[in-house]
Amino acid sequence: MGNIFNKPLIGVVMCQKDFGGHPTQTVQNKYLDAVLAAGGVPLALPHHLISSDDLLESAMAPLAGILLTGSTSNIEPHHYGETGTETDADAGRDRLAFTLIQKAITRRLPLLAICRGLQELVVATGGTLHRQVQSVAGFQDHREDKHLSLAEQYAPAHEAIVEPGGLLSELVDGATKFRVNSLHQQGIRSLGSVLRIEARASDGLIEAVSLKQHPFALAVQWHPEWQSEASLSSRQIFAGFVYACLQHHQEIRR
């Protein structure tokens, strides 16, 4: 794996939960494991960083990339022009993720966004979401069956059909489709002009996007971090992300 000091440091956003009255920020091991397996060094980013510009700048200074994870929480709907509330919301994560995305765009910092992270990238760049994809005519139910074991919930559920000529196509060596898991009820309704479609599900739902004018900013609706080393496409995605982070790291050290 080489010298640890040559490994890119990758910021990983955290989620806020309540455990017995104690507000707690967490990140699931599967995301950290996937970054480590691909050769990166993960660093968890707490919501406190957005309390001041100095804190956030200090935390971001050594980073070579950003990973926006999936979550059980959903983006609050007022961020994309809808009314109402979400039962599982995380306002601190919303604020931190949107800020990180804007800084990643400005600094051309490599970004990988997964599930909720994809939705954050879409909303942060002017897009909108379906709050319940399964209720929209023409789309299948993309939710997992929570009565099943985790292994069954994260098993491949449908194909991701890859758009030719894009970042994802390059990462997966030109594969036109591969099977992915599906554990979400929200999905992309519309995109801002800065995003490019990278893949769709067979029902037409957008499954992956990228920033058009960016060296590496990819977002996927599925969970490639789940047992990432066992899946070729997952290994390719994380390897490509960490390599982009390494390239960025080497450039800023010159």
Outline:
The chain is α/β, with parallel strands linked by helices.
Describe this structure in words.
The chain is of the alpha/beta class and 254 residues long. 29% of the residues lie in helices and 24% in strands. The chain has helices spanning 29-37, 53-60, 91-107, 116-124, 150-153, 167-171, 232-253, and strands at 9-13, 15-19, 22-26, 41-45, 65-68, 111-114, 128-130, 158-162, 177-180, 187-190, 195-201, 206-211, 217-220. A 9-stranded mixed sheet has the order 4-1-5-6-13-12-11-8-9, sandwiched between helices. It has a two-stranded antiparallel ribbon with strand order 2-3. A two-stranded antiparallel sheet has the order 7-10. The longest helix has 22 residues, at 232-253. The mean pLDDT is 95.
Q: What is the string of helix and strand elements?
A: EEEHEHEHEHEHEHEEEEEH
Rg estimate, integer Å: 17 Å
Relative helix content: 25-40%
The counted number of beta strands is 13
Strand percentage: 15-25%
Alpha plus pi helix count: 7
Which residue ranges are poorly predicted, with pLDDT under 50 across at least 5 consecutive positions?
none
Task: Tell me the structural class.
Answer: alpha/beta
Strand count, sense and barrel status of the largest sheet are: 9 strands, mixed
Sequence of strands across the biggest β-sheet: 4-1-5-6-13-12-11-8-9
State the distance separating the first and last CA atoms. Answer: 22 Å
Please state the overall shape, judged from the principal axes of the Cα atoms: globular
Instruction: Determine the mean pLDDT.
Output: 95
- Multimerization status: single chain
